[in-house]
Every structure is written in C-alpha cells, then in structure tokens.
Fold Dihydroorotase.
Amino acid sequence: MQAKQTLIKNVKIVNEGSIFDGDILIEGEYIKEINESISAKTSDVHVFDAEGQYLLPGVIDDQVHFREPGLTQKATIETESRAAIAGGITSFIEMPNTNPQTTTIEKLQEKFDIAAKTSAANYSFMFGGTNDNLEEILKVDPKQVAALKLFLGSSTGNMLVDNPEVLEKIFSSTKLLIAVHCEDEATIKANLAKYQEEFGEDIPIKHHPDIRSEEACYISSSKAIELAKKTGARLHVFHLSTAKETSLFSNKIPLKDKKITAEVCVHHLWFTDKDYEEKGTFIKWNPAVKSQADKDGLWKALLDDRIDVIATDHAPHTLEEKNNVYTKAPSGGPLVQHALPAMLEMYHREKISLEKIVEKMCHNPAILFQVEKRGFIKEGYFADLVLVDLHHPWSVNKDNILYKCGWSPFQGATFRSRITHTFVNGTLAYKNFKFYDVKAAKQLTFDR
C-alpha cells in the first residue's frame, strides 16, 4: 500500500534549463512541494533518500507504434508501455497504423479502452487521415487526441494520403496539430525499381539510404511545409533524417509560438550508414539512417533549436520478419527502453547537456502538444518522475530486453547511466528492472 505522501530527499533536479539540489514532496498524483529541504510532517510519509541521483521529468514520447490491435505478435500496449517506463518514458502518443487502422472514432475509442485496462504509462493516440475520412477527422475532440497523423510517403493499408486536393482540404479544415511522415513515394518507387533490376529482391542493405534518399525526404518535407504556410495549419514533421531538411525549420521564435516544428529520432542521432554492415536490417527504418554528414547536421539543428523534439518511432517487428531479405524485411525497430539511456550516453560523450535532453524529451513535447500538467517538475503538476544514476553501467542483452519482440538495435551496447526508479502519477511503478503491479497510468489530456 503506497503512503499518501512520498518525500524524495537529496536529489539533483533537472528542470527548465537548470540543475539544483533539493527535495520533492509528492501527494497523491501530484507534486505538492519542491524545496531545498523538506521535512516529513507526519509518520504517514514514505521518505526516500535519492543520495544525489538526478531527477528528470518523465519523458513524453510523441511517436510510438505499439501494434495493438491486430499486430500483437510484434507487441502490445501492455508489453511496450512496461518497456517504456523501464526506459523513463512515462507518457506515449501512439500511431494509427494498427489493424484495423485508427481512422474512425469507433476504432480510436477501442484503443483508449485497451490502454485504460493494460497500459503502464500515460497514453494518447493519434487519429489517422486517409484520402476519404475528412468527415471522421472533423469529429475528433482536440482535448482528448494528441494530433492527426498523415502519411505523405509509404504507409500500410490505405493510409497514404496522396490526393493533393484532399490534402489541402484536410490542412485547411482541421484545428488539430498535423503530424506527418514525409518521404516522396514516386522517388522511392523509381529508386527501388533501379536496385531491383540490379539485385532482385536481395538488395544489399547498404542501399537503403539510396532508395529512401535525401531527395525523397526533402521533396516531401518541403511540400508539406509549403502547404502548411499556405493554409495556416499547425504542422509537426516527424523523424527528420537529412541535414538538408533542417534548413526548412527556424529557431527564430519560441516553441510555443511556432506553427511548423520538427522532430528527430534517437536512431538517426546514433547510427550512420556505416552501421549497416554490422547491424543489417535491424537498423532498417523509414526514413533511412543516412550518412555521418546527415547525422552531424541533425545534431547541429537539434542543439540550435531548429529541431524541437527527440522521439523514438518505436516500431517493433519479430526477429523472423527482420531476418528476411531486404525487400521483405519490414522497416522499424524497438527503442522505448533504451532511448533515454542512449541520450544520457551522448551526455557522457559531451554531445548534449542533461538540461537539453530534458528540454527535447520532456518539456518540448508537452509544449508542442499542449499536454496538460506534464513534462515539467513543477508544483501542481502530475508526479511523472524518473530517477537516474549517471554512474551505474549496464549492457543491453537478450536477458534484460523487455520488448515483446525480444531484440534491440542496441544489443551489445553498454550504457553508463541507468534508470533506477520511475514514478507514474505519483506512484512508484518501476525500480531497477522490477515492476510494481500498479495501475497508475492515465489518459493524457490537452490544454486546447
């Protein structure tokens, strides 16, 4: 039975651009008090000495594929949300390309019902746009749904929105934030045909970034941005993978005032095309992991605030599926358990500060999606909190991978930092590879 209050003592709090020593009092689901020193007023307070560890707001991951309903051989909301809290991600926004797809209000509600029963982390879902569901899009409640997701490049089922008139109508009609996957389908098809002619189905994986090329990404991203400017739509471009695309985005105004924003994923900040030789299809993503110059350009834009958010695009597939030849191996990989440890590793390598990690993974998703009372360590906010030991190395191996698919692109990597405790809405949900059987997660709401 959890005490009504939890007092975390002697912690280094990372929040809003600074790190300071202090104590935090949690009461129920909320942060009650933050101070240099807080004393327990009654015996009914669980006092926890953090011994100088770092306290971060829970990460908000704005792009995951948890595969439920319909693709549960790969993952479920339950399995992947548990992996998420083990990785310090306390809230996720899940994508609509499940089976059936989340393109009607009825299917959206079914996903909310599943998450309410099984999710270990706070949850919301994006609604999917198609060439013919504008009527359903207009029924969506913006206080309950994170955003509208449009595939402007390849997608499963009928989710590719490739009719320019429909696209303009959606951009002009919805008040929802529009999140887009940008890769130009015609360019990719032409590139693929060229390589299939040479290699058949077993195209060497090193050609993935030649097929899903810089040109394919830039054509699509620039068109989406042009349309957003024309219609006044609020646009968020997912998973930038090229240095060239970063020139399309600005750092001239604060995030809260931006109408056009961008995200980068952990894998595009970590891997390059040199890693295909060792990792093969296990780092096959759409858009593709590209060159060192692209990775360098993404880091530059992230640190100078042209790129606003770091996310995962967590998209698991079974080992059997991933072991296929190039044209049959699906794109995507699992990341929620290892994204924050990977970014903390980049802190150790002096690529990024702790304050910047928190800004890009916690504060900015909350600002960008207008998530209510999350993403910051503030009095009156939900106590979604993550304790991190920066000097407690561990290696990723099949025995500690928590994804249902059982593998990770980080297998064999050693991280110097580990997530030791994760609080979800004031409740300790995870501690050092152990989960507590608590139902603390809530549906995210949006201040719109």
Summary: The chain has two domains: 5-56+382-392+413-435, 58-369.
